[in-house]
Amino acid sequence: MAHDLAIDLGTARSRVATRSDGVVIDQPTVVALDGRTKSVIGMGSAAEALIGSTTKPVRTAWPLVQGAVADYDTAVRLLRYLFRAAGGSRFGRPKVLLGVPGTATPIERRALGKAAAEAGASQVRLLEQPIAAAIELGLPLDQPTGSMVCDFGAGKTEVAVLSMGGVVASRGVRIGGLDLDDAIATYVRMTSGVVLSRSVATSVKEQLVQMGPVGSDQAVELAGRAVTSGDPATIVVSASELRPALDDLVRQLVSTVVQCLGEAPPEVAQDIIFHGIHVVGGGSLLHGLAQRLEEATDVPVHLHEEPSIVMVSGLRRCLALGSRYDELFSRV
Ligand SMILES: Nc1ncnc2c1ncn2[C@@H]1O[C@H](COP(=O)(O)OP(=O)(O)OP(=O)(O)O)[C@@H](O)[C@H]1O
Ligand SMILES: [Mg+2]
Protein backbone atom coordinates (compact mmCIF):
# COMPACT_ATOMS: atom_id res chain seq x y z
CA MET A 1 0.00 0.00 0.00
CA ALA A 2 1.29 3.44 -0.87
CA HIS A 3 2.33 5.64 2.00
CA ASP A 4 0.96 9.18 2.35
CA LEU A 5 3.44 11.94 3.07
CA ALA A 6 2.75 15.63 3.77
CA ILE A 7 5.73 17.75 2.73
CA ASP A 8 6.56 21.41 3.29
CA LEU A 9 9.67 21.99 1.18
CA GLY A 10 10.81 25.35 2.54
CA THR A 11 13.67 27.55 1.36
CA ALA A 12 15.54 26.98 4.63
CA ARG A 13 13.98 23.85 6.12
CA SER A 14 12.05 20.83 4.90
CA ARG A 15 9.41 19.16 7.00
CA VAL A 16 7.71 15.85 6.39
CA ALA A 17 4.74 14.43 8.28
CA THR A 18 2.90 11.14 8.09
CA ARG A 19 -0.68 10.58 9.11
CA SER A 20 0.24 8.12 11.86
CA ASP A 21 3.43 9.65 13.27
CA GLY A 22 3.09 13.43 12.85
CA VAL A 23 6.19 15.44 11.89
CA VAL A 24 8.92 12.88 11.25
CA ILE A 25 11.50 15.09 9.50
CA ASP A 26 12.54 18.71 10.10
CA GLN A 27 15.90 19.29 8.41
CA PRO A 28 17.70 21.99 6.41
CA THR A 29 16.86 22.06 2.69
CA VAL A 30 20.46 21.48 1.67
CA VAL A 31 22.61 18.96 -0.15
CA ALA A 32 26.40 18.71 0.32
CA LEU A 33 28.50 17.80 -2.69
CA ASP A 34 32.12 16.79 -2.94
CA GLY A 35 33.83 19.90 -4.28
CA ARG A 36 35.91 17.88 -6.77
CA THR A 37 33.73 14.98 -7.91
CA LYS A 38 30.36 16.73 -7.39
CA SER A 39 28.98 13.50 -5.88
CA VAL A 40 26.49 13.84 -3.02
CA ILE A 41 28.14 13.41 0.38
CA GLY A 42 25.28 14.46 2.65
CA MET A 43 21.66 15.62 2.69
CA GLY A 44 19.65 17.71 5.12
CA SER A 45 21.09 17.78 8.66
CA ALA A 46 24.06 15.64 7.62
CA ALA A 47 24.89 18.11 4.84
CA GLU A 48 24.66 21.04 7.22
CA ALA A 49 26.96 19.30 9.71
CA LEU A 50 29.60 18.91 6.99
CA ILE A 51 29.78 22.68 6.36
CA GLY A 52 33.01 23.90 7.92
CA SER A 53 33.61 20.62 9.79
CA THR A 54 35.75 18.79 7.27
CA THR A 55 38.99 19.55 5.51
CA LYS A 56 37.55 18.15 2.27
CA PRO A 57 36.30 20.73 -0.22
CA VAL A 58 32.51 20.75 0.19
CA ARG A 59 30.02 22.57 -2.02
CA THR A 60 26.53 23.08 -0.71
CA ALA A 61 23.45 23.35 -2.88
CA TRP A 62 20.20 24.86 -1.60
CA PRO A 63 17.63 23.77 -4.20
CA LEU A 64 15.01 26.38 -3.31
CA VAL A 65 15.32 30.13 -3.73
CA GLN A 66 12.58 32.51 -2.59
CA GLY A 67 10.25 29.58 -1.90
CA ALA A 68 10.57 28.04 -5.38
CA VAL A 69 12.64 25.26 -6.95
CA ALA A 70 15.72 26.90 -8.47
CA ASP A 71 17.96 23.82 -8.82
CA TYR A 72 15.75 21.05 -10.16
CA ASP A 73 18.21 18.12 -10.00
CA THR A 74 19.15 18.89 -6.40
CA ALA A 75 15.48 19.22 -5.46
CA VAL A 76 14.81 15.74 -6.91
CA ARG A 77 17.73 14.29 -4.93
CA LEU A 78 16.59 15.91 -1.73
CA LEU A 79 12.98 14.81 -2.18
CA ARG A 80 14.13 11.24 -2.86
CA TYR A 81 16.11 11.38 0.39
CA LEU A 82 13.10 12.79 2.29
CA PHE A 83 10.80 10.03 0.97
CA ARG A 84 13.31 7.40 2.10
CA ALA A 85 14.00 9.02 5.48
CA ALA A 86 10.25 9.23 6.16
CA GLY A 87 9.98 5.47 5.68
CA GLY A 88 8.77 5.64 2.08
CA SER A 89 10.85 2.72 0.87
CA ARG A 90 9.05 0.40 3.28
CA PHE A 91 5.76 1.33 1.67
CA GLY A 92 6.64 1.52 -2.03
CA ARG A 93 6.25 4.74 -3.95
CA PRO A 94 4.59 7.31 -1.68
CA LYS A 95 1.57 9.46 -2.44
CA VAL A 96 2.58 12.98 -1.50
CA LEU A 97 0.81 16.21 -0.67
CA LEU A 98 3.13 19.18 -1.09
CA GLY A 99 2.62 22.74 0.09
CA VAL A 100 3.13 25.37 -2.59
CA PRO A 101 3.35 29.14 -2.07
CA GLY A 102 0.10 30.84 -3.02
CA THR A 103 2.17 33.27 -5.10
CA ALA A 104 4.04 30.54 -7.02
CA THR A 105 3.78 30.87 -10.79
CA PRO A 106 2.36 27.98 -12.90
CA ILE A 107 5.91 27.10 -13.97
CA GLU A 108 7.11 27.02 -10.34
CA ARG A 109 4.18 24.77 -9.39
CA ARG A 110 4.93 22.44 -12.28
CA ALA A 111 8.62 22.26 -11.35
CA LEU A 112 7.80 21.31 -7.75
CA GLY A 113 5.25 18.67 -8.76
CA LYS A 114 7.49 17.23 -11.46
CA ALA A 115 10.45 17.03 -9.05
CA ALA A 116 8.33 15.03 -6.58
CA ALA A 117 7.15 12.67 -9.33
CA GLU A 118 10.71 12.18 -10.57
CA ALA A 119 11.86 11.53 -6.99
CA GLY A 120 9.52 8.54 -6.93
CA ALA A 121 6.08 9.71 -5.81
CA SER A 122 3.23 7.65 -7.24
CA GLN A 123 0.80 10.54 -6.87
CA VAL A 124 1.49 14.25 -6.30
CA ARG A 125 -1.02 16.81 -5.09
CA LEU A 126 -0.28 20.43 -4.31
CA LEU A 127 -2.04 22.62 -1.76
CA GLU A 128 -1.52 26.34 -1.33
CA GLN A 129 0.37 26.96 1.91
CA PRO A 130 -1.98 29.63 3.37
CA ILE A 131 -4.87 27.15 3.07
CA ALA A 132 -2.82 24.44 4.81
CA ALA A 133 -2.02 26.90 7.61
CA ALA A 134 -5.67 27.97 7.92
CA ILE A 135 -6.75 24.31 8.23
CA GLU A 136 -4.17 23.67 10.95
CA LEU A 137 -5.21 26.81 12.84
CA GLY A 138 -8.87 25.76 12.68
CA LEU A 139 -9.90 28.98 10.89
CA PRO A 140 -13.47 29.01 9.52
CA LEU A 141 -12.38 28.15 5.99
CA ASP A 142 -15.68 26.89 4.60
CA GLN A 143 -17.81 29.64 6.11
CA PRO A 144 -18.43 33.22 4.98
CA THR A 145 -16.13 34.55 7.72
CA GLY A 146 -12.91 36.19 6.65
CA SER A 147 -9.52 35.39 8.14
CA MET A 148 -5.95 36.42 7.42
CA VAL A 149 -2.83 34.25 7.46
CA CYS A 150 0.69 35.69 7.07
CA ASP A 151 3.63 33.35 6.45
CA PHE A 152 7.04 34.82 7.21
CA GLY A 153 9.46 32.32 5.68
CA ALA A 154 13.16 32.26 4.99
CA GLY A 155 12.85 33.08 1.30
CA LYS A 156 9.49 34.74 0.92
CA THR A 157 6.60 36.33 2.78
CA GLU A 158 2.98 35.70 1.89
CA VAL A 159 -0.25 37.17 3.12
CA ALA A 160 -3.63 35.67 2.29
CA VAL A 161 -7.20 36.58 3.11
CA LEU A 162 -9.41 33.51 3.18
CA SER A 163 -13.14 33.09 3.07
CA MET A 164 -15.58 30.45 1.77
CA GLY A 165 -12.91 27.81 1.16
CA GLY A 166 -10.54 29.94 -0.86
CA VAL A 167 -8.18 32.87 -1.08
CA VAL A 168 -10.04 36.15 -1.73
CA ALA A 169 -7.01 38.46 -1.59
CA SER A 170 -3.29 37.79 -1.42
CA ARG A 171 0.03 39.56 -1.51
CA GLY A 172 3.52 38.18 -1.60
CA VAL A 173 7.00 39.53 -1.55
CA ARG A 174 10.12 37.51 -2.24
CA ILE A 175 11.82 38.70 0.92
CA GLY A 176 12.31 36.54 3.99
CA GLY A 177 14.56 35.71 6.90
CA LEU A 178 17.56 35.04 4.66
CA ASP A 179 17.41 38.63 3.41
CA LEU A 180 17.53 39.83 7.02
CA ASP A 181 20.59 37.61 7.60
CA ASP A 182 22.27 39.09 4.53
CA ALA A 183 21.46 42.63 5.68
CA ILE A 184 23.14 41.92 9.04
CA ALA A 185 26.22 40.46 7.35
CA THR A 186 26.40 43.40 4.91
CA TYR A 187 26.10 45.95 7.72
CA VAL A 188 28.91 44.31 9.73
CA ARG A 189 31.15 43.95 6.67
CA MET A 190 30.67 47.57 5.64
CA THR A 191 31.05 49.13 9.07
CA SER A 192 33.73 46.87 10.61
CA GLY A 193 35.38 45.04 7.72
CA VAL A 194 34.47 41.67 9.25
CA VAL A 195 32.89 38.96 7.13
CA LEU A 196 30.37 36.83 9.04
CA SER A 197 29.18 33.38 8.01
CA ARG A 198 25.48 33.13 7.24
CA SER A 199 24.90 30.92 10.29
CA VAL A 200 26.40 33.60 12.59
CA ALA A 201 24.22 36.29 10.97
CA THR A 202 21.15 34.04 11.42
CA SER A 203 21.81 33.47 15.11
CA VAL A 204 22.35 37.21 15.70
CA LYS A 205 18.97 37.88 14.07
CA GLU A 206 17.22 35.20 16.11
CA GLN A 207 18.77 36.10 19.44
CA LEU A 208 19.79 39.76 19.48
CA VAL A 209 17.71 41.76 17.01
CA GLN A 210 14.75 43.69 18.42
CA MET A 211 12.45 45.42 15.93
CA GLY A 212 9.86 46.44 18.53
CA PRO A 213 10.19 48.96 21.35
CA VAL A 214 13.79 48.83 22.60
CA GLY A 215 14.29 48.21 26.31
CA SER A 216 17.86 47.88 27.51
CA ASP A 217 20.32 47.61 24.63
CA GLN A 218 22.30 44.37 24.36
CA ALA A 219 25.54 43.59 22.59
CA VAL A 220 27.31 40.37 21.56
CA GLU A 221 30.79 39.50 20.36
CA LEU A 222 30.85 37.80 16.96
CA ALA A 223 33.58 35.82 15.25
CA GLY A 224 34.30 36.24 11.56
CA ARG A 225 37.15 36.98 9.19
CA ALA A 226 38.79 40.30 8.37
CA VAL A 227 37.81 41.34 4.85
CA THR A 228 41.33 42.65 4.10
CA SER A 229 43.40 39.65 5.27
CA GLY A 230 41.03 36.71 5.71
CA ASP A 231 42.39 36.29 9.25
CA PRO A 232 40.05 35.43 12.15
CA ALA A 233 38.56 38.60 13.66
CA THR A 234 35.96 39.47 16.29
CA ILE A 235 33.52 42.35 16.45
CA VAL A 236 31.01 43.57 19.03
CA VAL A 237 27.57 44.53 17.70
CA SER A 238 24.55 45.86 19.58
CA ALA A 239 20.83 45.38 18.98
CA SER A 240 20.31 49.14 18.57
CA GLU A 241 22.83 49.48 15.73
CA LEU A 242 21.38 46.53 13.79
CA ARG A 243 17.82 47.84 13.96
CA PRO A 244 18.25 50.57 11.29
CA ALA A 245 20.06 48.04 9.06
CA LEU A 246 16.95 45.85 9.02
CA ASP A 247 14.30 48.52 9.19
CA ASP A 248 13.77 48.92 5.46
CA LEU A 249 13.17 45.17 4.96
CA VAL A 250 10.86 44.92 7.97
CA ARG A 251 8.94 47.93 6.67
CA GLN A 252 8.42 46.11 3.35
CA LEU A 253 7.12 43.02 5.17
CA VAL A 254 4.71 45.10 7.24
CA SER A 255 3.49 47.06 4.23
CA THR A 256 2.74 43.78 2.38
CA VAL A 257 0.33 42.91 5.19
CA VAL A 258 -1.21 46.41 5.22
CA GLN A 259 -1.75 46.32 1.44
CA CYS A 260 -3.38 42.89 1.56
CA LEU A 261 -5.73 44.01 4.31
CA GLY A 262 -6.60 47.02 2.15
CA GLU A 263 -7.52 44.72 -0.74
CA ALA A 264 -9.91 42.55 1.29
CA PRO A 265 -13.62 43.13 0.61
CA PRO A 266 -15.00 45.43 3.37
CA GLU A 267 -17.11 42.82 5.19
CA VAL A 268 -14.20 40.36 5.14
CA ALA A 269 -11.83 43.06 6.47
CA GLN A 270 -14.28 43.64 9.32
CA ASP A 271 -14.02 39.95 10.31
CA ILE A 272 -10.22 40.18 10.30
CA ILE A 273 -10.26 43.35 12.41
CA PHE A 274 -12.48 41.50 14.89
CA HIS A 275 -10.71 38.10 14.88
CA GLY A 276 -7.13 39.24 14.32
CA ILE A 277 -4.25 38.32 12.00
CA HIS A 278 -2.58 34.90 12.28
CA VAL A 279 1.16 34.89 11.72
CA VAL A 280 3.10 31.69 10.99
CA GLY A 281 6.52 30.69 9.59
CA GLY A 282 9.81 30.88 11.46
CA GLY A 283 10.25 34.54 10.56
CA SER A 284 7.20 35.45 12.67
CA LEU A 285 9.47 34.88 15.71
CA LEU A 286 11.51 37.99 14.87
CA HIS A 287 11.40 40.03 18.07
CA GLY A 288 9.08 43.00 17.71
CA LEU A 289 7.57 42.01 14.35
CA ALA A 290 4.15 41.26 15.85
CA GLN A 291 4.10 44.67 17.60
CA ARG A 292 5.07 46.39 14.35
CA LEU A 293 2.19 44.64 12.58
CA GLU A 294 -0.29 45.59 15.31
CA GLU A 295 0.79 49.23 15.18
CA ALA A 296 0.55 49.40 11.38
CA THR A 297 -2.82 47.64 11.04
CA ASP A 298 -4.52 48.34 14.35
CA VAL A 299 -5.55 44.68 14.35
CA PRO A 300 -4.59 42.11 17.02
CA VAL A 301 -1.86 39.71 15.87
CA HIS A 302 -1.87 36.03 16.92
CA LEU A 303 1.56 34.45 17.11
CA HIS A 304 1.65 30.66 17.16
CA GLU A 305 3.64 28.49 19.49
CA GLU A 306 5.46 26.45 16.86
CA PRO A 307 5.04 28.69 13.82
CA SER A 308 7.49 26.79 11.60
CA ILE A 309 5.56 23.54 11.62
CA VAL A 310 2.06 24.96 11.13
CA MET A 311 2.25 24.38 7.34
CA VAL A 312 3.29 20.74 7.45
CA SER A 313 0.84 20.02 10.27
CA GLY A 314 -1.95 21.52 8.13
CA LEU A 315 -0.89 19.43 5.15
CA ARG A 316 -0.89 16.34 7.36
CA ARG A 317 -4.40 17.15 8.53
CA CYS A 318 -5.42 17.28 4.85
CA LEU A 319 -4.14 13.73 4.31
CA ALA A 320 -6.82 12.66 6.74
CA LEU A 321 -9.54 14.99 5.46
CA GLY A 322 -9.58 13.31 2.07
CA SER A 323 -12.42 14.33 -0.17
CA ARG A 324 -13.81 17.15 2.02
CA TYR A 325 -11.27 19.64 0.66
CA ASP A 326 -10.57 17.82 -2.62
CA GLU A 327 -11.44 20.81 -4.78
CA LEU A 328 -8.62 22.77 -3.14
CA PHE A 329 -5.89 20.39 -4.30
CA SER A 330 -4.30 20.50 -7.68
CA ARG A 331 -2.97 17.28 -9.14
CA VAL A 332 0.25 17.02 -11.04
N1 LIG B 1 13.61 33.72 16.76
C1 LIG B 1 13.66 34.05 15.47
N2 LIG B 1 13.76 35.34 15.11
C2 LIG B 1 13.83 35.69 13.81
N3 LIG B 1 13.79 34.82 12.79
C3 LIG B 1 13.69 33.52 13.09
C4 LIG B 1 13.61 33.06 14.44
N4 LIG B 1 13.53 31.70 14.41
C5 LIG B 1 13.56 31.33 13.11
N5 LIG B 1 13.65 32.41 12.32
C6 LIG B 1 13.80 32.46 10.85
O1 LIG B 1 12.74 31.82 10.22
C7 LIG B 1 13.18 31.40 8.92
C8 LIG B 1 12.74 29.97 8.70
O2 LIG B 1 11.36 29.96 8.70
P1 LIG B 1 10.58 28.79 7.94
O3 LIG B 1 11.09 27.48 8.41
O4 LIG B 1 9.14 29.09 8.10
O5 LIG B 1 11.07 29.07 6.44
P2 LIG B 1 10.97 28.12 5.18
O6 LIG B 1 9.65 27.44 5.19
O7 LIG B 1 12.18 27.26 5.09
O8 LIG B 1 11.06 29.21 4.01
P3 LIG B 1 9.97 29.66 2.92
O9 LIG B 1 8.62 29.44 3.49
O10 LIG B 1 10.27 31.10 2.68
O11 LIG B 1 10.25 28.82 1.71
C9 LIG B 1 14.70 31.51 8.92
O12 LIG B 1 15.10 32.64 8.16
C10 LIG B 1 15.02 31.69 10.41
O13 LIG B 1 16.21 32.42 10.62
MG1 LIG C 1 7.76 27.99 4.56
Describe this structure in words.
- The structure is a single chain.
- The protein has 332 residues and is of the alpha+beta class.
- The chain has two domains: 4-131 and 310-331, ATPase, nucleotide binding domain (Nucleotidyltransferase, domain 5, 2-Layer Sandwich), CATH 3.30.420.40; 142-303, ATPase, nucleotide binding domain (Nucleotidyltransferase, domain 5), CATH 3.30.420.40.
- Helices cover 37% and strands 28% of the residues.
- It is built from ten helices and 19 strands.
- The chain has helices at residues 44-50, 72-85, 106-118, 129-136, 177-192, 198-207, 239-263, 266-275, 289-297, 310-321; strands at residues 4-9, 13-18, 22-28, 31-34, 40-43, 58-61, 64-65, 68-69, 95-100, 123-128, 147-152, 157-163, 166-173, 194-195, 219-226, 232-238, 277-280, 301-303, 330-331.
- A six-stranded mixed β-sheet has the order 3-2-1-9-10-19, with helices on both faces.
- Strand 4 (31-34) and strand 5 form a beta hairpin.
- Helix 7 crosses helix 9.
- The radius of gyration is 21 Å and the shape is flat.
- The model has no long low-confidence stretch (mean pLDDT 93).
- The structure holds adenosine-5'-triphosphate (ATP) and magnesium ion (MG).
- Adenosine-5'-triphosphate (ATP) is lined by residues 10-13, 67, 153-156, 176-178, 202, 205-206, 281-283, 285-286, 308.
